[in-house]
Amino acid sequence: MSLINLKTKKEPQYLSNNLSSTTNKSKDLTKLKEKNTSTNLSSSLLIGESVIITGTVKAENEVTIQGSIDGDVDCHSVLVAKTGNIKGKLKAENIKVEGKVEGEININNLLQIHSSGSVNGKVFYGNIQIEEGGKLLGEINQRDKNNKQEEFNDWKAL
């Protein structure tokens, strides 16, 4: 009879421990859901190496392009990886180019062209950085802080 009493006493303890750990797990899941919701607000888009998009890509945050886009891109910031390729209109606050960009490029803040990067087209930018080996070809227009444009007479660099 004492064995039965021991089992009976242990089972409620086991169940109560299990219930409290389940309650803790559900609290952890709630915290995780809240964290993921806030993370989704700042999430980014990755276009993989084998992906080809024809059309418009519009995002509120960062877009990383490893594949190809034939169309327009409108987002906060863009990273064109070494395997990335954009043909079309591009509008962003910042862009880092390690691959190829061709078309009309409107960058409000910083245009960075890395040594493996190539930009070709009509370019509007706030600030520019070009690493040795980076290529820029086309019409280049700088935006000042008042969004006025200073046109540089079809300056070309190879």
Write a structural description:
By secondary structure, this protein is α/β, with parallel strands linked by helices. The protein has two domains: 1-41; 45-152, no CATH class. Helices cover 25% and strands 45% of the residues. It is built from one helix and 14 strands; from the N terminus they run αββββββββββββββ. Strands 1, 2, 3, 4, 5, 6, 7, 8, 9, 10, 11, 12, 13 and 14 form a 14-stranded mixed sheet that branches. β13 and β14 form a beta hairpin. 18% of the residues are buried. The model is unreliable at 1-10, 35-41 and 147-158 (pLDDT under 50).
Summarize the structure.
It is built from one helix and 14 strands; from the N terminus they run αββββββββββββββ. The protein is α/β, with parallel strands linked by helices and 158 residues long.
